[in-house]
């Protein structure tokens, strides 16, 4: 039997066990992979509302006056132009242009910020920020204090409205304060599924009660990381540690949209050089002609030559075929055919544009918006 005693657990671990969830390691945490089944949970989120335990994610609060602090230099997106009550997805890079993490920065007020990062990189992110932030900035790691639930799906707005007893007037990538369980909490209109969705930030002391309250709605079911992965892949969102990492640049990953070239940031010189000299590899997306799906590290073969490898692959419950993404060392155009090969297994596929799934309830720029995983 696998020893999971060294893994961290969210405050909701007993809730997951009581619901019969299948648990497995993820980013150093013991997390629910599925409850009733990945496909069922996936389809429920696409049609109703799914509730995800995301308490493993990391959060930092920052006090910074951008006229005196170098906070803006640590991320690829422009924080000076970010209005209060909005948030922005971007990257924290190393000097070589590799992605230390993908994250979301929230502007709470003129000088108050919150940064949400990936679970597995929380400690290294803090080390990087403390190394580079100047003395005009105050950083606090609140990850062990703050819990996080994601409510995703076309019915999520109606569910949330009943929870807070008021209309939720939030545009995509904005947030506000709402009262739940007698406490004012941050709710943002963000997500990782391609559906209308919200992320709820509440102190851990109340997160169990909030979990039960949300699940009391008949339109809500718990959803594990298995369906979260198929949902995000159908939209073409990258998963940190799998599709992107510190050895991957945003340019290679096709994520230049989240780079503001008009500002300074760590890693900018390396990215400019890469752009001038040409990319050593680039991300492509592909759809198989059947239900067969590629897996991580399958070889990508184009015109008889091994040109790269798969980083993410899965059966798509919404489309009924195998889908995936990966990196190739030469140009492979949309519409061209590739073979996805591992040993004696060979899957025929066609290169396509993302997103794979185009009918989600998030209608605004699905292909451009992304989220930390």
Explain how this protein is built.
By secondary structure, the chain is an alpha+beta fold. Helices cover 18% and strands 34% of the residues. It has seven helices and 20 strands. Strands 11-12-13-10-4-14 form a six-stranded mixed β-sheet. It has a six-stranded antiparallel barrel with strand order 15-18-17-16-19-20. The protein has a five-stranded antiparallel β-sheet with strand order 6-7-8-5-9, covered by helices on one side. A hairpin with a 2-residue loop joins strand 19 and strand 20. Helix 2 packs across helix 6. The longest helix has 11 residues. The protein is globular. The chain starts with 7 loop residues before the first strand and ends in a 21-residue tail after the last strand. The C terminus is likely disordered.
Describe this protein with a few key phrases:
alpha+beta, 373 residues, disordered C terminus, globular
Furnish the topology, listing elements before pairings.
Blueprint (H helix, E strand, L loop, with lengths): L7 E2 L3 H6 L3 E5 L2 E6 L3 H10 L1 E5 L4 E7 L22 E7 L5 E9 L4 E6 L4 H11 L4 E5 L4 E7 L3 H9 L10 E6 L2 E6 L8 E7 L3 H9 L4 E3 L2 H11 L32 H10 L4 E7 L10 E4 L2 E12 L4 E8 L8 E6 L2 E8 L21
Parallel strand pairs: 1-3, 4-14
Antiparallel strand pairs: 2-3, 4-10, 5-8, 5-9, 6-7, 7-8, 10-13, 11-12, 12-13, 15-18, 15-20, 16-17, 16-19, 17-18, 19-20
Helix pairs in contact: 2-6
